[in-house]
Amino acid sequence: MRHLLDIDDLSTEELSELLATGADISKNKEKYMDICHGKKLATLFFEPSTRTRLSFTAAMMELGGNVIGFSDPKSSSASKGECVSDTIRVVSNYADIIAMRHPNDGAPLSAAMHSGVPIINAGDGEHKHPTQTLADLMTIQNHLGKFDNLTIGMCGDLKYGRTVHSLIVALTRYKNVKFILISPEELKLPRHIKDIITEHDMQYIETSDMNKYMQELDVLYMTRVQQERFVDIQEYLRLKDSYILRADKLKAAKKRICIMLPLPRLNEISKYVDDDPRACYFEQTLNGKYMRMALILKLLDEYKKDSSVGREIKNQAEPIMSFSKPLKCRNPHCITNKDDDLKQLFVSDDNKVYRCAYCEQEI
Ligand code: CP
Predict the structure, then answer these.
(1) Is 191 tagged catalytic?
(2) pTM for this structure?
(3) What is the mean pLDDT of residues 213-220?
(4) CATH number, span 7-129+285-304
(5) Ligand 1: which residues within 6 Å by Cβ?
């Protein structure tokens, strides 16, 4: 069964198809208004959200379907201690497709292993946020018309910013993309994402200076410092206003720079920038709805075609790699360290580096 746990679950051709469908939906809404009649989307949000949850809800409603779910785990049996895998197993009896956000890295893999219906990762911890990437790609395409030969500035919290991780992974599949990684030392991009850039023979530069490369950038992707991931509140307070994009900083920028921000905004971009025609962040939220509509259609269509899949899940997925000696993922935020009954699974790359299959932490 197809799920969307990571942007790499989609081939480049499939991304192009989704972008084409998203564009068509944006122009021909009436063509799609009844396609999901009788279908239900479950939105299971174990973490707060405005854009992602409501755009999924609007997406399913505009496709003629219905939506069930919860926006706060306190109102679900998670508050009584129910594990993700049991919740998913139950909800896949009630819905045709599930969009889930969870504070633990790798929770979507656990969900997919126990689901009878397609799972969409709506953001897991500091790990990935693939449907935000779909919104981001549509926005870049609409403004710049291409993904090749771009210089992308990523600015702010590159360590905990899951939208950054997914977008970089997506962009490495195109040609000659250069990344300018702008962050304080404490919030640098994780090693394994930098490795993905170099594995694709692409260049990245790390800097703490927001102004230094401004004139080169085709995209400036600002991010919020993710308070919810910090253990030390003092450190958060020290870092939270590391970068504020004000209108004067854009004087050196290209005429067609695409200024992006996944939102919510605290202080990352001055409101005076909002009226600049290069500011794309509110358009990103609209594009998110169109791309989530396209994704729902694709996953439901493939689920329908796969006649071997029953409504009730019969077996757990086979281990990707397991060891005789018990190994534990050392990421304290990994879902395997929350749900003790989950199998520890690991994957290795060509260099024999082993990673947790759920959260990708190196072991
Ligand atoms: N961009 C994003 O994920 O926003 P929400 O947290 O409001 O869903």
Answers:
(1) no
(2) 0.94
(3) 98
(4) 3.40.50.1370
(5) 49-52, 123, 132, 262-264
